[in-house]
Amino acid sequence: MKALRAVFAATTALCAATAANATDLEVTHWWTSGGEAAAVAEFAKAFDATGNKWVDGAIAGSGGTARPIMISRITGGDPMGATQFNHGRQAEELVEAGLMRDLTDIAEEGNWKEVIHPSSLLDSCTLDGRIFCVPVNIHSQQWLWLNNKVFEDNGLAVPTTWDEYAAAAPKLEEAGIIPLAMGQQPWQTTLAFQVLLTALAGPEAYTKIFGEKDAELAGSEELAKVFQAAATARDMSKDSNVQGWNDATTMVITGKAAGQIMGDWAQGEFQVANQVAGKDYTCLPGLGVNEVIMTGGDAFYFPKVDDPAITEAQGELAKVMLSPETQVAFNLKKGSLPVRGDVDLAAANDCMKKGLDILAKGNVIQSPDQLMSADSLTQVNDLFVEFFNDPSMSAEDAQATFASIVADAD
Amino acid sequence: MSAATRPARWHRNISAKVAAVPMIITAVVVFIGGTAWTVLYSFTNSKLLPREKFVGLAQYERLWSSSKWLISIENLAIYGAFSLVFSLLIGFMLAALLDQKIRFEDTFRTILLYPFALSFIVTGLAWQWILNPDFGIQHVVRSLGWESFNFDPLYNPEIVIYGILIAGLWQGTGLIMCLMLAGLRGIDEDIWKAAKIDGIPMWKTYLFIVIPMMRGIFITAVVLIASGIIKVYDLVVAQTGGGPGISSEVPAKYVYDAMFLSQNLGQGFAASTMMLLTVVIIVVPWAYLEFGGKRK
Amino acid sequence: MTKAPHLLKGSMTYDTAPEAGHDRALRHGDGTSSGNRMVEGPAGRKPRKALSRRNILIYGTLIVVCLYYLLPLYVMIVTSLKGMPEIRLGNIFAPPVEVTFQPWVKAWAEACTGLNCDGLSRGFFNSVRILIPSVILSIAIASVNGYALANWRFKGSETFFAILIVGAFIPYQVMIYPIVIMLREIGLYGSLTGLVIVHTIFGMPILTLLFRNYFASVPQELFKAARVDGAGFWAIYFQIMVPMSLPIFVVAMILQVTGIWNDFLFGVIYTKPDLYPMTVQLNNIVNSTQGVKEYNVNMAATILTGLVPLTIYFISGKLFVRGIAAGAVKG
Whole-angstrom Cα distance, residue B260 to residue B84? Predict the structure, then answer.
């Protein structure tokens, strides 16, 4: 009997020991395309090196598809070890409901306040002075992608600003080229408008409208020119008959269209088609007018769990994700910018370097996700979808509606 | 078994009652319970998580002032009417054709049914391409010489819902056909013989004898199609994402977008409550007619 | 033993002999008819000549319709055999210049979802593990429900049925959170059992309706005769109802196999990664939001995923036989 008890004790001890050393941590995320998966593998590799084990729970399709699944798991009382969210206000309520783990002690230990640059990234992880998430990368939307050859073939200089681009549009149209490629999916039109707003009205105006919900500014004369530009963009893209953003990018690559307003992820398509930045295509951050970068991106949250071994592993993972080596390895694969200002990205290409420069200068704005609730953003979305698809809707009407949405926004 | 050991009258149905327990639990707990829960939270301003902050009818006011919702309903009505009529019509005709003792019945049936098996996310993409004016049917016909040929249903807000209908029928009629075929196979062979002897033409036999005999199958088919119509979501997301603009939005998509994209659960619940209310208004009178009055 | 057992037995081994009579020659004049033709054969009249006008009409219509149905499949298969550069050229109907099976290999065995680069094959077995119990349980319960509703009504049975029918119209998404709460309360959240129950619940409304309406059309004489003979609830179900309703069981199977095999939402919400069905991989291959979209792999993956339901459709055709109710009543 005694022997048996000893065996039991030994087994329990053994189990406990292995648990402390190697904990399986389930991580949910929506990075599933080729490049994304390679980037995640960097995280997993670094995490496994700490003696723990990354259990992958990838679900493609951000927002609509993955989010209900993540929320169900967390509220169902059977949470994963860590989960991706866009940082910003998406997970606010989960934090408020006390379902997410407070990471403040780890953040202080790792001196996150100093190393994370720009600091606004950490702000959106903070609620009531406590830190709840780990930002891991920066994806920016403010890019105009242009096919150099299309311009040269038609005797035009490759534009360096939005105005030059808009001025070239009639000539391109004459040549049978669609000046601006745009996918029909709603988010793409909203993206185009936000980029126009930031570039033409300036980052301050953007922050005032989306952050402070300044409805007066939204309805002002100053913003009228943004809406006029949007109307121009609508006109330039009227023959663009595709749905997906990547189909639109393909039109630019093949020369059916001259340019596209899209986030930095469009670069992947150019690379796959063996196009060289600066030679075959040009990228203009902030449409060449106001060179700013939106610091949207991804962050990881850690649901609260009872198991101390998992809690321990969560802390490990948080540290690993922010370590300089992992940041470099991850972001090179992902095509995004690192969240630390103190790392060296020598391997970055032309467009990424432009981005890094802007980041170093501190020309950053927060993403709409960080500033406005998802509900209000959908209303903005709906407006621009309608505007871009209904030529009879005037710029003035759209602006008036926009101002009223901003007034009611939270 | 002899008559003496037969259970008492009230007792005799005990097996049926026991067998129906899963159904009763599902009906009461899941459907009534879940619906009550949904209706209750449609009066709150729940965002990401359900919470009890009641706001009265605010969600409903917003719902009915949303042009997206109004367009959704209009689209559903158009799509629903056409889909119901054509699914039944095509489904039945195909079943009747297959029921003519033809060769390769298995092959024909499988071909007609295969769209039902393939996830619409990608078949939707194939349709999107086929209907794309720049490289789909329009392009092919034009390159054959008919330059003015115009066919761009997914890119024209006026007719986009019909473009979705084309793919919807393609996907759904195979199943209805199978159901009808099962119904036809349940018709007594003697009926055909008798009709033949009396010299009744075939189409009359179908119309006045066979179809009335298949009433149960038709009701099943109608419910199957109608529930599919109300829930139509994938089809739209895969083909147009609700566009161009918001011209092909449908209610189920409105609900889903509100719940998971806008993170406004209350709004999604309000929209689904309205949908459910419509269904109840239609189904309850039917149920009453079906088994309320005439008990055999 | 009285008359009834004989009747039951007769219903299962049907014989066409009794009144095949004079019209037989008329209907099966081509001489190919056999004793069990009525059990297997469809209705309608057997044509006398192979190339009659009627035949041309029937086959012509069917072939035209089938061509229309096959058009998207053609586009998908052609696309799946092309390389990406060729797809970018944008002629969707053109056959591949250079046939490549790489997309199929990639879809099945190499496509990465996060860390796991073993394509669709990863979730295949899980899908089977989910499919089999879910299909069996949901059809078993719904057919018994339908049987009880059609033949053994009890007080309130119609009310519950009406509720079920209304339930058929609820969009799934709305029920996600309430069901998460219910499963959590009974301790089945995250388990295979929980998922099987969810599939059974959501299949129940339509399936119950399907069976109820079919069983209700079975001649009452049969049922009454069996009752007189003392056969109980289960005896009648297994010995009369099931054998007579094979086509409707096939339809139910088609519905459930397709629905459950293609289900993605419930599979991920109510289970954990080690139980994720194949559709999770399909979604991950097809639905990636950023990065390059490989249309050829998407198409191959979709067709591969559809193969299981397609096989079931094809095989189950053997069960699409004419009901044997009529003979049993008279025989």
Answer: 29
What is the domain-level CATH number for residue B162?
A: 1.10.3720.10
Are C289 and A75 inside 8 Å of each other by CB?
no
Write down all domains in chain A, each with its CATH number in brackets: 2-135+298-335 (3.40.190.10), 143-294+366-408 (3.40.190.10)
Hey, is the C-beta of B256 within 8 angstroms of any chain A C-beta?
Answer: yes
Tell me the sheet residues that pair with A54.
Answer: A25
Residue B28's domain comprises: 1-41
CB–CB contacts below 8 A, B to C: 322
**Number of structural domains found in chain B:** 2
Show which subunits contact B, needing at least 3 CB pairs below 8 angstroms. Answer: A, C
φ, ψ of residue A86 to 5 degrees: the values are: -70, 135
Q: Which domains does chain C have, with CATH numbers?
A: 53-100 (no CATH), 121-330 (1.10.3720.10)
Question: Would you call C112 and A34 a contact, using CB atoms and an 8 Å cutoff?
Answer: yes
Handedness of CA C80, C83, C89, C93 (dihedral sign): negative
Residues B102, B8 share a domain: no
Same-domain check for residues B36 and B63: no
Residue of A nearest to B62 (CA): A379
Per-residue pLDDT of chain A (410 residues; tens, 9 = 90+): 445 455 444 444 444 444 446 788 999 888 877 677 788 888 999 999 998 999 888 887 766 678 888 888 888 888 899 998 876 677 788 888 889 999 999 999 988 988 887 888 888 888 888 999 999 988 888 899 999 999 999 989 999 999 999 999 999 999 999 999 998 777 788 889 989 999 998 888 998 998 888 988 988 988 899 999 999 999 999 888 777 787 888 889 889 999 999 988 888 778 777 888 888 999 998 888 888 888 777 889 999 998 899 999 999 999 999 999 999 888 888 878 888 878 877 777 778 888 888 888 888 888 887 788 878 888 888 888 888 888 888 999 999 999 998 988 87
Residue with tokens 């009335």: B212
In angstroms, the Cα distances linking B52 to A14, B44, B45, B265 are 46, 6, 8, 12
Residues B36 and B92 placed together within one structural domain of the fold: no
Mutant choice from B6, B15, B23 vs C, greatest count of C C-beta within 10 A? B23
Quick one: A93 exposed, middle or buried, by C-beta within 10 A (0-12, 13-18, 19+)? middle
**Same domain as B140, residue B17:** no
- B72 domain residue, yes or no: yes
CB of B260 within 8 Å of a chain A CB? The answer is: yes
Domain shared by B37 and B143, yes or no: no
Give Cα separations from A44 to A53, A213, A318, B197 (angstroms): 8, 40, 12, 77
- On whether both B243 and B207 belong to a single domain, the answer is yes
Q: Which of C86, C91, C115 to mutate to test the interface with A (most CBs of A within 10 A)?
A: C115
User: What DSSP assignment string belongs to C222-272?
Assistant: HHHHHHHTT--HHHHIIIIIHHHTHHHHHHHHHHHHHHHHH--HHHHHSS-
pTM above 0.95, yes or no: no
Residues 299-328 (C) with a CB less than 8 A from some CB of B: 299, 301-303, 305-306, 309-310, 313-314, 317-318, 320-323, 325-326
Whether C268 and chain B come into contact, CB under 8 Å, resolves to: no
Shared domain check, B100 and B32: no
* Whether B33 and B160 share a structural domain: no
Domain-located, residue B52:
no
